[in-house]
Amino acid sequence: MDTWTLLTIATKVLIYLSTAGVIGGLFCLWLLKPHGIERPIQRYMLVAGLAGLAATAASFPAHTGAAFGSGIAGAFDPDIANIIWETNVGDTTRSHLLGFTLTLAGLWVAVWGGRRLGYALVIAGAVSLLFAFTQTGHLHNDSRGVVMLVIHLSGISLWLGSLYPLWRVSNGHQVDQLQASMQRFGQTAVAFVGALVICGGLMILLLVQPLSGLVNSAYGWLLLTKLALVSLLLALGAINKFYLVPRLARAGYTRRLRLSIVTEMTVGLAILVTTAFLTTVVGPE
Fold this sequence. Notes:
This protein has about 280 residues and is mainly alpha-helical. It is built from eleven helices and no strands. The mean pLDDT is about 85.
């Protein structure tokens, strides 16, 4: 695996994380409103937007270098860049740049008093970010696959992007207030996690035919690894919802909840890294 491929994977992971931060941050502005942490969530989304812009800016020359294999000079060659800019990679790059720029502009407007307009811009940015992922990949020419992909990405972004704000409020906030917010998160999660799982399963049926390809190819084994990690994430979410959250008033359970959320973050990162490998190094046969 060459340097350009590794850089492409790294920038993809950072773009995934940044997209989750924007979408999950938007969700937590509503979910955690009683905690009065709007400004910290805005800063979290600001970091996500800036990181996303930087990763997008780095991803384009990484794609160019990987495509033409001409070293640093090839990655920044204007003629080569113009060729790549007119492909699906260019479409994705433009949508990511627009999405993160709208996010940052919206946050600036919201902080300076135009909350409704500001958050409307952030929502538009989130839509652009989701749209960007439909421009490339193994399903971008399949309308059914595109719809399922958007739903799947929305669900995973809401979940993973909410973990840091949830961890933050679990550290030092009143137990009753924390318990109410976690219960509200769990109730909402039933819908988006269910959609995430259903769409993920349907996409596997579209991508891997016959299903024996799951054990007969590198793509299949990586996909099974991702499924195992998602199953672990679902198990952690179930433990939180049905075991830890109802017992938060007991001594030590808030600390257990924080540890569980950190574990979810770690597993979520592993899922994103696996996804980046799936969309860069291997493909369905």
